[in-house]
Every structure is written in structure tokens, then in C-alpha cells.
Design goal:
Blueprint (H helix, E strand, L loop, with lengths): L2 H14 L12 H8 L3 H13 L3 E4 L3 E4 L24 H8 L8 E2 L13 H12 L15 H11 L12 E3 L1 H13 L5 E6 L3 H9 L3 E8 L3 E2 L1 H10 L2 E6 L13 H14 L2 E5 L24 E6 L11 E4 L4 H11 L5 H12 L3 H26 L5 E2 L7 E5 L6 H9 L3 E2 L1 E2 L12 E5 L5 H20 L5 H14 L1
Parallel strand pairs: 3-14, 5-6, 5-8, 8-9, 9-10
Antiparallel strand pairs: 1-2, 4-11, 6-7, 10-11, 12-13, 13-16, 15-16
Helix pairs in contact: 1-3, 2-3, 5-12, 6-12, 7-8, 7-11, 9-10, 13-15
Length: 490
């Protein structure tokens, strides 16, 4: 992280904590230069970063001031506990949401798609082109089942940033994180086994559990801290749970970052009941805070954590490059890899190893983390402006996904059907549950944010208001009045 980014983060924290109030004048450039012993350009760049994020504003001949902000939607509350393990359903919703061909006229607000237009990805394109021009038989031949060692070395080096001490031989390259999670599921369980998951949970993991004939125990999850340890302990006491599957960093779909003490307590609980932990870290490198939180794998002393990751969210999903560090289940994971897809395609592995080794990965992450943080704040403001006052919204600590909880009367599946006619699609809440819970919730993407995206968000908010009015909620006139009052307050 550059000096100006560190200074911007410090100022942002002070604003968000209330040290600087809305409308208050911030320290002058000269004052910050003297206080932090940095250059004038460092302070100017920090202020420009905060200004581009809509957090402050510059007034001619007066300095920089904290911008008045809309009252943002409050975060949702923790859900209710499930009474017993269940079989996973909801495949029809997942298929509809993931199998549609992209349409340039439709805004796909619900997809877990990063911004792939960033200029910091150009070195990766050059690396891909360079390996293609070499016309080497290496890229056309079968690769090692474990994957290219050069890439495994780079992944092991990157893992140190999350305090995970991995050896290249601990890793298996997979075709995306989805395959890594699928391998982990099969490595620790068999048909009929019970997997505990946070709720809501990533639908890809749920469908992997379904495909292997396993069952799910949904555990209530706090939108700011993660899976409820009390509810998990009770479930572990009552049921023969085989593994716990969690996404503790930049959770999908809630966006939380599990605190370190919570991670330690979760690992201790897994040790006590002798169950495995499948840790999905696909969004981990996109944590806004620097340095990022340690993985649960970094706490692992007996090989019970199967760490899964990929470059699909930090770079581009089309690479289809993921990995797994399966701990004590290494041999089982290798067999699952062999009977599943065999070796992973070589071309992208080689290009990606070059991209990281040449020093392009970290600058790209810095750019995307700053962009996604700005977009998160802009999206929260848009939700405050365009959605009914009864809406709740998470506060993601990384990544680019926002979870919204609307009034109980809303049916997000019906909402998505209506929005499709308006060339907008969201991810309905039932996709993120084994049995169709969270029907009044939805997930939206803020990887990019511009006037067109805000217009699409406005369409979603207006349709939510219309559906709630039809269900007997507050009339549209009142919702419009609330929105007008929020705009005036800004």
C-alpha cells in the first residue's frame, strides 16, 4: 500500500468513526504534511482518493470538508437456526441465474463478476499472448496432476500475506475455486454426510454438497462477524457433522470479515469435535484493510483445514485457475482431482505465474481494493436513495458484493422475473439457502459503478417499492417522500 493510500485509509477511518463530522473542515495540506512527515503530493493524492470516493469535497479557497451523507440502510440481523440437516434444493434458481448467456443490453447486478477492464490486467494479457506465440508443446500437452510448480511457488509466496505458511508441494492447482471446493467436499465426506455451512451461503458450495448426496446444516450467521459459534456448537453436539464450510474473508454473499478471535474460536471448536474446516478464500485478497486478516489455515496445527482459493475474483474468472491446500487429506484430494477433471490447462498457469513473478499482482490488487471500496460506498448511497426505507444492507469489508434484506412481504424470485423484462437481473436470496430461505433478500454487484449502474439500481428499488405496495406495504407516495427527504438531507 502506497503512502497516500495509507493516509487516505487513516482519514477515512476517522471520518467513519465520527472523529470528523459531516460538514467539518479537514486538516490543511500543510498540517498533514507536518503531522505525518509526508510530501505535499502524498497528501494531495490522499485527498483526491477520498474525494473520488464521495467521502469529502474540496471548496475553493476553503479547503477540504467531510461531505454530508445520506442515512444508509442499517445492517440486517442474524437469522434463525435450522432445526435439522436437510437436502439441498434450489437447483432451478441456480441454473437460471448462472446458465444464461451474457446480453450486452442487460445489467447483471447479481453476478459475482469482477471488473475485468482494469488497465492493471494488461500485463496478464501480454503474458497470455507471449506464451501463445511461443508455440511450445508444453502448453498443448498434459500437465502434472498437481499443476505447474512455478505457479504453486507463486501461490505459496502470496499466501504469506495471509500468514499461511504453505510449501508448493502442499498445493494442487484446480480448474477454479469451484473445483477446489468440490474436491474438498469429496475428500472429507461421502453420501449422507452432514456439512455445516453459514447461512446465507454461496450457492455453488451448496450445489456441490447436493451433487454428492450429502446434507446441509445451515447455521445462523452474523452479517458483521460470521457464523454463530453458539449455534454451531449446539449443532455439533446434536448431529454427526463431518465438516464446516465457511468463507471468513470477504464473505459471499454477506461481505463480512470474520474477526481473528472468531476464527480462533471456530478452529478450536473444530478441534474439540474433530471435524474438518473447508475454508473458501476466493475473495480474501480483496479485503479493503491492509494487511488482510490471516486465514483460518494459518492457525492449523493438525492439517484439518482445507484451504481453497482462485484468481477468478481478484483477476478474471475466464482464467479458470484455482487451488487447494488440502492438509491431511492431500492424497484423497489428488485422487478426487484425477477422477474429476485430471490436470488443469497449462497455458493460463504459465502466464499467471509470470504475471505474479514480474510484480504485477500487488499493484492490481491495490487498484481494485480502492475501486471496490469507493463503489461500495456509492452503492450504499444508491440503495438509500432508491430503495424503500424498510431495506437493510450489509457493510462489506472486501470484495464487490452487497446483500440486501427487504420487507418480509417481498418475493425476490418474482422480483427477478419482473426485472428481467426491464433488462436487469439480480441474485435472489433463495439461491443462497439449501431450502429456499432468504426469500425477501437479494445480492447485487458493485464491481463497477456509473450512472448506468445507478439507473439499474433505481429500477430495482422502484420495483421493490411497487411489489411491497401491492402486498399492502407503505404506498409509493410515502416511499417517494422518504427518498426526497433523504436527498434533501444530503
Amino acid at each position: 500500500m502506497n503512502r497516500y493510500e495509507r493516509l487516505a485509509c487513516e482519514l477515512r477511518s476517522r471520518i467513519e468513526e465520527g472523529y470528523y463530522q459531516a460538514g467539518e473542515r479537514l486538516p490543511s495540506v500543510r498540517d498533514l504534511v507536518e503531522a505525518h512527515r509526508v510530501s505535499i503530493s502524498t497528501v494531495q493524492h490522499a485527498y483526491q482518493l477520498l474525494e473520488s470516493g464521495g467521502l469529502i469535497e474540496a471548496r475553493p479557497r476553503s479547503g477540504h470538508f467531510v461531505r454530508p451523507r445520506r442515512e444508509r440502510p442499517p445492517p440486517p440481523s442474524i437469522g434463525r437456526a435450522m432445526q435439522r440437516p436437510v437436502e439441498v434444493s434450489q437447483w432451478d434458481q441456480v441454473r437460471e441465474g448462472t446458465c444464461l448467456l451474457p446480453n450486452s443490453k442487460t445489467f447483471y447486478l447479481g453476478r459475482g463478476m469482477p471488473d475485468i477492464d482494469a488497465p492493471t490486467l494488461r500485463p496478464l494479457l501480454r503474458a497470455l499472448s507471449r506464451h501463445a506465440r511461443r508455440q511450445s508443446l508444453v502448453t498443448l500437452n498434459y500437465d502434472s496432476l498437481q499443476g505447474q510448480r512455478s505457479l504453486r511457488e507463486q501461490i505459496a509466496r502470496l499466501a504469506l500475506g495471509a500468514e499461511s505458511h504453505l510449501h508448493p508441494d502442499d498445493l494442487v492447482i484446480t480448474t477454479g475455486c469451484h473445483e477446489a471446493i468440490s474436491i474438498a467436499m469429496r475428500a472429507v465426506g461421502e453420501p449422507g454426510a452432514i456439512i455445516a455451512v453459514d447461512s446465507p451461503s454461496f450457492y455453488g458450495s451448496l450445489q456441490a454438497i447436493r451433487s454428492y448426496g450429502m446434507k446441509v446444516m445451515e447455521i445462523p450467521t452474523d452479517p458483521s462477524r460470521g457464523i454463530s459459534l453458539d449455534a454451531l456448537e449446539l449443532a455439533l453436539e446434536q448431529w454427526p457433522i463431518r465438516a464446516i464450510q465457511v468463507t471468513p474473508s470477504c464473505n459471499n454473499p454477506l461481505g463480512y470479515g470474520m474477526p481473528l478471535e472468531h476464527r480462533r474460536a471456530l478452529y478450536a471448536l473444530a478441534q474439540r469435535f474433530d471435524v474438518m474446516i473447508i475454508e473458501d478464500d476466493v475473495y480474501g485478497d480483496l479485503e479493503y484493510a491492509f494487511p488482510r486478516q490471516p486465514t483460518i489455515k494459518s492457525l492449523d496445527t493438525d492439517g484439518r483445514v482445507l484451504l481453497c482459493g482462485s484468481f477468478s475474483k481478484a483477476l478474471a474468472p475466464g482464467l479458470r485457475i484455482g487451488w487447494i491446500a488440502p492438509g491431511r487429506h492431500f492424497e484423497r484430494a489428488m485422487h478426487m482431482k484425477y477422477v474429476g477433471t485430471g490436470s488443469t490447462a497449462t497455458h493460463a498457469q504459465l502466464a499467471l505465474a509470470d504475471f505474479i513473478e514480474e510484480g504485477h499482482y500487488d499493484p492490481h490488487l491495490r487498484r481494485m481494493r480502492a475501486q471496490y471500496l469507493r463503489n461500495r460506498d456509492a452503492m450504499l448511497d444508491a440503495v438509500a436513495a432508491h430503495f424503500p426505507a424498510s431495506t437493510y444492507a450489509t457493510r462489506p469489508q472486501g470484495g464487490f458484493l452487497l446483500w440486501l434484506e427487504c420487507a418480509p412481504e417481498l418475493d425476490s424470485i418474482a422480483l427477478n422475473q419482473r426485472l428481467t423484462e426491464q433488462k436487469v437481473r439480480i441474485a435472489p436470496g433463495p439461491m443462497f439457502s439449501a431450502v429456499g430461505k432468504h426469500r425477501n433478500c437479494l445480492r447485487i454487484n458493485y464491481a463497477t459503478f456509473d450512472p448506468q449502474v445507478e439507473a439499474a439500481v433505481a429500477r430495482v428499488g422502484a420495483e421493490v417499492a411497487r411489489m411491497l405496495e401491492e402486498a399492502g406495504q407503505a404506498p409509493l407516495a410515502q416511499l417517494a417522500e422518504d427518498a426526497g427527504a433523504a436527498e434533501a438531507a444530503r
